[in-house]
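Before the break, one more example. Copy the sequence into your notebook; we will annotate it together after we see the structure.
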Amino acid sequence: MTDLEQDGEGVTAVLSSAFGETTIRARYAVGGDGMHSLVREAAGLDFEGGAYAESFVLADVRMDWPLSAEEVSLFFSPSGLLVVAPLPGERFRIVATVDKAPECPTLAHIQALVGERGPQSRPGILRRSCGPLGFGFTTA
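Here is what the structure looks like once it is written out:
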C-alpha cells in the first residue's frame, strides 16, 4: 500500500506491485502493518510504544521442540528471558532478552540461548531458520 485516504463513506487505498498500481475502495481499512504503519499514520494515530532497558533477539525457526507446540513457553533464567511461541507449519518464534543484541543473530546464537535458557532434560534443537533468521533490537 502506498497511499490511504479516508472520507465519510470509507477508504481509498492505492496498492503498488510489480504489475502496476491498483486503487481499491472499501468501507474500512484494518492496519496490521507494523510499527511504521501507513494505516495508523493515515488515521492520525501515534505509536506510543514503551522503552525497555534490555535488548532483544527475535527469530523464526524450525526446531525439534520437546514441549507442547500448542502453547507459548516462557523461561526465566539467571541469564534472561526466553519465549518460545509456536507458529503454523512447524515453526517457532524465539524471543530472548540479551545484554547487547546483534543486528542479525546467527542460528548458533539462537541455539545457544535456547540451550542455556530452555528445557534442560530434553533441549530444543534448531534445524534451520524460516527465511531471514531474525534481528536484534534495543528499545531504550
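Strands lie at 3-7, 10-17, 20-26, 55-64, 73-77, 80-87, 91-98, 125-138. The radius of gyration is 19 Å. Try to locate both features in your own notes.
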